[in-house]
TrEMBL record:
<keyword id="KW-0539">Nucleus</keyword>
<dbReference type="InterPro" id="IPR014892">
    <property type="entry name" value="RPA_C"/>
</dbReference>
<dbReference type="InterPro" id="IPR036390">
    <property type="entry name" value="WH_DNA-bd_sf"/>
</dbReference>
<feature type="domain" description="Replication protein A C-terminal">
    <location>
        <begin position="169"/>
        <end position="254"/>
    </location>
</feature>
<keyword id="KW-0238">DNA-binding</keyword>
<dbReference type="Pfam" id="PF08784">
    <property type="entry name" value="RPA_C"/>
</dbReference>
<protein>
    <recommendedName>
        <fullName>Replication protein A 32 kDa subunit</fullName>
    </recommendedName>
</protein>
<feature type="domain" description="OB">
    <location>
        <begin position="64"/>
        <end position="140"/>
    </location>
</feature>
<dbReference type="InterPro" id="IPR012340">
    <property type="entry name" value="NA-bd_OB-fold"/>
</dbReference>
<dbReference type="InterPro" id="IPR004365">
    <property type="entry name" value="NA-bd_OB_tRNA"/>
</dbReference>
<dbReference type="InterPro" id="IPR036388">
    <property type="entry name" value="WH-like_DNA-bd_sf"/>
</dbReference>
<dbReference type="InterPro" id="IPR014646">
    <property type="entry name" value="Rfa2/RPA32"/>
</dbReference>
<comment type="similarity">
    <text>Belongs to the replication factor A protein 2 family.</text>
</comment>
<dbReference type="InterPro" id="IPR040260">
    <property type="entry name" value="RFA2-like"/>
</dbReference>
<keyword id="KW-0235">DNA replication</keyword>
<dbReference type="Pfam" id="PF01336">
    <property type="entry name" value="tRNA_anti-codon"/>
</dbReference>
Length: 262
């Protein structure tokens, strides 16, 4: 395996703007950003991302893929916290355990050890001012060539997004430009906050406000929301937010937590 320490501190991966982080020049305004479901990144990109999703040349990445080496593992009853490191930096990755699946078999727990290389899929979140990877899937890397291939994918992906960004022209709405900064014109029930509309935010805020380690139950949520939405709409919102990575189930399929609170 590569010696990680030997290459930190210089080169392509050490430049924040090379990957189009929050301060990248020429990137489109937030209202004109594109989105990508999944993209490979290096840890430095995650550490230098803004408050929202990781952004590469105006494209917001919903789910990231990182290949890194495990430097420490902390086991708890409901989650495993990994310290991971690649040639660009080090961060924590949190993997929540499925208690029901663990009772049936032990295949739900990632089979990795300290110093193993892993491929991780998840969301980058901010907790107490630090970036954390909320991991959905962790797989051991068995072929050293996969590490090189991942870095080449990161470079290729960045170059493609940079090329696409430069082709696009940011359109400015002249009517909107004349409105005062605090104007409420144009805001309605379909407006969104962090990608969620007001109906979805009602459900999300209930989940995020829970201080219980197992999260809030579906039944308790619906008791609060039953006068505002139907059960079908409520179920559809939960399913959509799970699929988009905003929330996840904990001890069973009836309890949920927000991915930015742990």
């Amino acid at each position: 395996m590569w010696n990680d320490q030997s290459v930190v501190g210089g080169g392509f991966f050490n430049s924040t703007n090379q990957f189009g982080a929050a301060n990248t020049p020429n990137q489109a305004q937030k209202t004109g950003r594109r989105t990508s479901r999944t993209a490979p990144i290096v840890i430095r990109q995650a550490l230098h991302s803004g408050d929202g999703d990781v952004t590469i040349w105006g494209t917001e990445i919903m789910i990231v893929c990182i290949v890194a080496r495990v430097r420490n593992i902390r086991m708890q009853s409901t989650k495993i916290t990994y310290t991971i490191q690649d040639i660009t930096g080090r961060m924590r990755a949190v993997f929540w355990l499925d208690q029901e699946a663990m009772e049936e078999d032990d295949k739900s727990t990632p089979k990795v050890q300290v110093n193993d290389y892993v491929q991780i899929y998840g969301n980058v979140k901010t907790n107490k001012g630090k970036k954390v990877l909320m991991a959905f899937k962790i797989m051991p890397v068995t072929d050293v060539n996969a590490i090189t291939f991942h870095y080449l994918q990161c470079i290729n992906n960045k170059l493609k997004m940079e090329a696409n960004s430069k082709k696009e022209k940011v359109e400015v709405n002249p009517t909107s430009a004349m409105l005062p900064a605090n104007s409420m014109v144009g805001m309605n029930d379909n407006s969104s906050v962090n990608g969620l509309n007001p109906r979805q935010m009602m459900v999300f805020n209930l989940i995020r406000a829970s201080t219980l380690e197992q999260g809030i139950s579906k039944q308790d949520m619906f008791v609060t929301l039953k006068d505002r939405m139907s059960q079908m709409e409520f179920e559809n919102i939960l399913e959509w937010m799970c699929g988009e990575g905003h929330i996840y189930s904990t001890i069973d399929e009836e309890h949920f937590r927000a991915t930015d609170a742990f």
